[in-house]
Fold Response regulatory domain-containing protein.
Amino acid sequence: MSDTLSPSLLVIDDDPLYHLILQQKLRGHQVYKSVAYSLSAEPVLEMIIEERQNADLLPDIIFLDLEMPGLNGRNFLQLFNVIHRSLEKWIDIIIISSSTEQADRSLSRSYAFVKGYFDKASGLDMAVHLPQFIPKSR
């Protein structure tokens, strides 16, 4: 990861309440050098493509919801799979979803860059502890 102390996190979820709850959960914990939030996957994918050679502007970790209007999480993963090898740095994706479909859970094993699948409640708790389980360099 680009920072030896802590990774950067980008949360993609169309639920602003989830963003607020996660912000409150992370308050007081210095586990991420920065946390950004997006209600939509499209601008994030556009930013990643545009800044693919600028490691400092790319997140280290993405929390991705699967159920969103427009570009949903499943389609984001398919498109990310096409571009991820052209990125200046590796980005780990964690699926955070309320879906109980086995097919959705299997997505965490379908892509090397997807490091896990968590339901939204577990994802809130996991967010505080995740950086200690992600390698700091590639």
Summary: Residues 47 and 128 are 25 Å apart (CA to CA). The first helix runs from residue 16 to 26. The longest strand covers residues 92-97. DSSP finds five helices and five strands in the chain.
